[in-house]
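**Tokenised fold:**
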Amino acid sequence: MRKSVLSFVGLVLSVQASARCGAQTRVVTPLTRKLSLLTSQRALPSFSPAHRSSSVQNTRNPSRSSVVNTDHMEDEIRRWIAQKRFEFERKGESPGDDEMPEVPALIFDIDGVFKMGGRYADFGAEALRKVIEAGLPYVLMTNGGGGRTEDEYAAEINSKLYSVEQNKLTKKRIDYVGEDQMVLSYTPFNTDFDHLKDKSVLVVGSPRCEDLAKHYGFKKAMHLTRYSCKHPLMNPFGPSGCEKDDCVVETGPEVWDENFEAVLVFTDPSNFFEGIQLITDVLLSSRPGEVEFEPDRRIPVVFSNPDLLWKTQYPHARFGQGAFRLSLEACYRARLEQLGLRPEEVEERLGDFVQYGKPEITQFSHSRRAAMKQANDMGVKISHYYMVGDNPLSDIQGAVNMNELAERKGTEGWSGMLVKTGIYREGEDTKGAEVITENVLDAVEHVLQTHSDDIEHSKRHRDLKKRYATS
């Protein structure tokens, strides 16, 4: 690249020298206009050939008259521009990208920020419109998902936000969020557990989670309810969620051929008791109906959400998946102790519980990668991350964890912004929130004001790129 640029500079200087020797008339062509813009953005000497004559005499030393073919030079310049344009397009760049503008990125929680239960707030739609108009990268990261795919949840948000947006008849309908901007509690399951996709796994959560698991590529996924229906005596109160005809105990020996190699908790199970009982059985044995305990059996239980509480339309917070993990952990511990395992053996087995979701760094890292990809597509760099959420224990603590990691690695910092529309109550421990606002719209306006100069510079940069693309 450097050699090509130097060659081009030499070529431009030669033509400029020849132009000074010829007529003074300045001929402006589409090529010279584009070349002028290109050289001004790349800090190269500007080029404007004096005329398009086929040759220029060496007037300084007529005896050594040499002929410079400017038509040939222009052909060379055209080829150079075509080559550079190809390289820029291949890299997703354009002239002027050596110094990409830096802007902040926003990571938003969903429940308690944009919606309370199933009710979406109009200020959420306005907040995202402002972020989009400012040209900032953003991601929606939730400890929920309800068993929907990222695309399904994005479509729901787009529909719901537009339906509650004020003065929507005077506004152009937009997509507030896309599939690639959604990080659900279980989104990392799709990328982090490829080694389990050909294995038999037990899926826990809403009924649609088995289809979701298969959508992610877990070919041998079986839902907890289907497992319970296949082995109806495992739950002494009868399996939940299946028809009675499906739960008739077959005569003859029961077949225990599942041999699960992992338990994936996508969402909270609606029946805590059944979940605790059957998962404990599966952890203790690959064939629970035949062998009570296999000492060498060790499989992971992966949880997607550590939240003890979450916000619904009910006036007070409700138990979440974190409560289910605490319950399962306590019962599993007691069962292992009853089987005679030593305390250190019990703790070692409890180490097979793997946690995803906010405030885990693994979850925040997924949202960071999604924001960085979006920023790269937009032609900007991220200068700082803002986590906007309603839960100090998951949203704000996660931002604090990421900021500590960033300080050690020398990467972009993180700030936690707490809103009052969710489970947070004034006077509670904010876990280090740097800003507290009434709602997500106020949080967005705070970021826009704080980074107004950078955002304005980014807008000018985008306008310049558009003018170049159409010149």
User: Anything to note?
Assistant: The domain at 188-355 is CATH 3.40.50.1000 (Rossmann fold).
